[in-house]
Amino acid sequence: MSISKAKREEAAYRCYLQGRESFENGDITAAIDLFLQSLALDVHFKTYACLYDCYLQLGKHEQAAELTKIMETQQ
Asked: Of 16, 3, 64, 18, which Cα lies nearest the Cα of 44?
């Protein structure tokens, strides 16, 4: 049985919001995990942008650059 699109989007949004909260609280590693979970459920430009910010915050410029390429194809 597969999960409905609406349920996936809802779960993705919850992960996104939890990721934003983790980021704002300085837990960048948790934020990355949550943003990746969100993207696994539903691809969204804002989630990529937040993940990009996380990688920059940690000095992971190569990962951030890869996300830039992905975000350019999403627009």
From this structure: 16
